[in-house]
Design goal:
By secondary structure, the protein is α+β, with helices and mostly antiparallel strands. It contains two helices and five strands, in the order αβββαββ. The longest helix has 22 residues. The structure holds guanosine-5'-monophosphate (5GP).
């Protein structure tokens, strides 16, 4: 499977569709998920086009991980969450619905069941 730039995150990265952005640099865009699984559900989207983890450039993955750590720390502070779930899906069989590499940071709250 190859990368198709017409996906919704490609459009957001090109500025063709609005998004609630919370951070952006040369490596990644960070934005709120439009259908949050919990309060504060955030997406980290590497800018370099790749379909998912299976075709991603390892250098991009190395550059994105520190961003994810900083966002997770800030998200935990900002939401008062008790934990942060990191999720990532590769291909439709695994639950991927938008075919541009992205990572979910999903705050978890004591006493609030996590989505499946
Ligand atoms: P996936 O299942 O591909 O890992 O997750 C894609 C995520 O993108 C879903 O959580 C979905 O709610 C989110 N999403 C889909 N379309 C949009 C959009 O137009 N804007 C934003 N901010 N999130 C979106």
């Amino acid at each position: 499977m190859s990368y198709d730039s017409s996906n919704i995150f490609g459009k957001i990265l090109r500025g063709e569709i609005p998004a609630h952005k919370v951070y952006e640099d040369d490596t990644a865009l960070v934005m709120m998920d439009i259908f949050p699984q919990s309060r504060g559900h955030t997406l980290v989207i590497p800018k370099m086009p790749s379909r998912n983890l299976l075709d991603a450039d390892p250098q991009v993955l190395s550059a994105v991980m520190p961003i994810m750590q900083r966002v997770a720390q800030a998200l935990k502070r900002a939401t008062g969450a008790d934990g942060i779930r990191l999720a990532q899906f590769n291909e439709a069989a695994a639950g991927q619905t938008v075919f541009h590499l992205h990572f979910h940071l999903i705050p978890a709250y004591d006493g609030v069941p996590l989505a499946a």
